[in-house]
Each structure stands twice: as C-alpha cells, then as structure tokens.
Amino acid sequence: MRLKAFFLIIVMVISLNDMSIAATRVAYTRPGLMMKIPFSTVGRSPYLFRTGFGTELHNFSPFNSTAGIYFDMEVGRNFSLGFSSVQTADTTNLANLEVSTYAPPVEFGFHLQQRVFTYNDVSVSVGLQDIVFQNSELESGLNLSPEQLSFFVVVSSAKQLGSYNLQTFLGFGTGGFGAQDSLLTTDSSLDTLQSGAPAGVFAGFHLNTPFFNKWGGLDFVGEFDGIGINVGLRIPLTSDYRLNIGFTHIDKLPSWKIRYWPAHPALTVGFDMAVPRRAKRVTGGLAGPYPLMTEAGDLPVFDDQFSDQFDSTLAMASFMVSSLRDSVVMVNNEMRNLMVRLSAMEQKSNFLEDSLKSLKLSSNVEGKNMNEALRHLSRSLRYFYGGDYRASLQEVESALDLNPNLALAYARRGSIYYKLGDVQRATINWNLALRMDPEYDDVRNILKALHENRLRTTSFVRE
Fold first, then answer.
1. Closest listed residue to residue 25, CA positions, set 107, 138, 103
2. Which of 3, 84, 307, 367 has the highest Cβ tally under 10 A?
3. Cβ neighbours of 5 (radius 10 Å)
4. Could you give the C-alpha distances from 169 to 68, 201, 400, 428, in angstroms and in order?
5. Nearest by Cα to 412 from 448, 463, 453
6. What pTM did the predictor assign?
7. Which helix (H) or strand (E) holds 15?
8. Which residues contact 196 (CB under 8 A, 6 or more apart)?
9. Candidates 3.30.70.100, 3.20.20.140, 3.40.50.300, 1.25.40.10; correct CATH number of 370-459?
10. Domain 2-183+193-305 falls in which CATH fold?
C-alpha cells in the first residue's frame, strides 16, 4: 500500500506544471541524522519522534540566511515520515542584497521513506524527499514545487571500529540531488538560468565517537549531497538534546564573495530534541544514537514505550505509590488496633469507675452502718448500766446485724451473758472479740481473770 502511495504521488507531481526554482535545502532539517542526504538503518529507530531547527548563514555583510524547523518519526517498523518548514534565503544578485525587494518564499515540505531490504549490517531504503509547497509572488496560496521533489534510493552499511561506530551511505536521487550550479550574476551574459542535471549521486558517512559517551557520543558527519560537500558535528548536550554545527558546500568557499546562487556555501547551526523509546538492551551493543548492530550481529529491539530513564522513573514512582499504599494499609491496621485498644481501655475505665463507685457506695454504706451500730452499742451500754440486760443484749444484736466485725459488740455481748449467768456464751463472745482484735487487752485480762477464778464485776467491758 505504501509503494502504491509513492507511485500515486509521482504521477501527481509529473502531471503538474513546472514552477519557479526553489532556493534552499537547509541542513539538519531532513529526517535522519545527516545534514542533507537520506539516512537508513538496519534497526528500528530508538526514538518515538525527533524535532528541532536548523539555520544556514549565507552571508554576514549584508546579512543573509535561511532557517527551518522539522519533525520526523518512524511509523511502524520500516516506514518513516517527516515534515519541514523553511524560510528561504534571497538568491538574487549578491551585489544588490542591501537594496533587494525580493521576498524569499516560505516552503512546507513532506518526506517519506520506506526500508525495503536488510541483510546483516546493510540496509536499503527508498523514498520521496522534499514534497515542497511554497508561496509565490506570482501566484496566490501554496503551490507545489516539483523541481525539489527527490525520489531516492540509499544503501547503508554499519561497522564497528573499536569504540567507534561508522555508518556509510551511498545513494542515487532525482531533483534536489542533481547537480545545481544555477546562478544570477551581475554579468549580463550570464543573466540566464542554467538548469542542472535532473538526477545525481550522493554519499556520506556518520561517525559516532566515544566522547560524551554517557549521552550517546559525539558525531562527525560528512557528505556529498549531489551539489557540494557538507561537514558537521552533532554535539550531545544531554542524552536527548544535541547541538548541530557545520559547513555546507565547503568546496565552494572560494566563491563566497564572488557570486551567489542556491548552492552557496554556508555556516549552519541547528538543535534537535529526541523523545526516546525504551530499548531492550542487548549485551555488547554498539554505542551511539542509532545502535545499528550488536557485536553478535543481532539487531537491537525497541518497543513503543519511553526510554529506560522514563521507565525507571515510572517504576520508581510505581514502587513509591505501592510503598505508600502499603504504609497507608499498615497505618489503617494500626489505627484499627489502637481503636480496639482504646475501646478496651474505655471498657476497663468504665469498669474501674463502676468499681470505684461501688467501693464508694460500699464505703458510704459501711460508714452509715458503723454510725448506726455505734448508736445501738451506746444504747446497750445505758441499758447495761440500768440493769436491763435483755434490752442491752437486743441492742448489741442490732449493732452486730449492721456490722458483724465489731470486736466491741462481741465483748459487750460476752459481758451481758456473764451478768445473765451464762459463763460459756460469755467466754465464746470474749474469744470472738479477741480474735477480731488481738490487741484488745481488756478482753484478754477478763479471760485471764476468769481462768484464774478472780473475775470481778468491775472488770466487765462497759466502754
């Protein structure tokens, strides 16, 4: 289907009329890592997409330049596409640049490429480059410029030279890859447009070095684009950002101040940013932005996710989220345990509070009973003094009902039984009083006197 699309585009272009000659092919604004020629690899691109800009400085006094931006990406495993937009330079007479009223056209270009063959470290790609639409002073809107359209075939080979990675390219292309030496000069005899050949050969190399290896390595670029020789450097700023510098058509530098034409030499500067995929690392793989081959001859494999850096960041974030989730679960369990413990402590506190209330109530009851028992003992003493021993005994019984632990009540009851002539009961009660209060000396003395048969009435307990 993609090859059919190529043929349809070619037929469409051929069916259109020729228009004005385009002025520029800005370096570092075409798909791939080269300056102006196509790029082919045996492996899949390690980037989701690349974007950036490039500019060519054609003259400094008067100042004249051209600049462009680009975007390219690989769609599927073998097909890639790109887009570029260029503000072209003024290619009129060099001597009249300061007073020139020429408005350079703006170009919008599309670039398509299909990898059709790979074998070991060799790959072959075909494509269409510079399907350019530009505005024109003569016609309104954007118009297709067929002169720049280039159908090309490029063969690429990758070799490892120690810690260096060398990629070479050789290809054949039409349109912009044909020799162009068309110019307008102040010589009226040459004031005609001389068209170059419609097709030509291009070649180049890309050398990745171990300098700045942690960011992908420093790249040297050299190429013949069908018109002239270009050389450049791709300097890594980070693993995903590169500064591109170089010279285009340095073979024509001696003519810098003599004439001016579309293939004029220039100082070029560019910048690109790449959004990487996540690479499935292969042990022994080559360095560089495009790891084309491994030492074992295997191709590196890339998936459609972000790079290891992004993936490791996401993995770390996922780990942190999982850890936080586990921490939250642990905190919830701990809170639940604390709530259970708090509930148990509240129950214990309520129990202790109830016990305290019960003790307080019991203490109050005991205090009240003690007071009441003492009042009964006080009345029993009055009855005892009055000789009413039965009434006195009844009051003592009432006191013992209220508080059965009163040693005084047992001692009083023993005295009452002795007065009533019941020595046995008297002795039992006096012994009970002494058991409850071992230091009750009065009772001990009474029992001693009773044992020695010298007990007198005055010895009775009457307190």
1. 107
2. 84
3. 13
4. 24, 11, 123, 130
5. 463
6. 0.56
7. none
8. 178, 179, 180, 181, 182
9. 1.25.40.10
10. Porin (2.40.160)
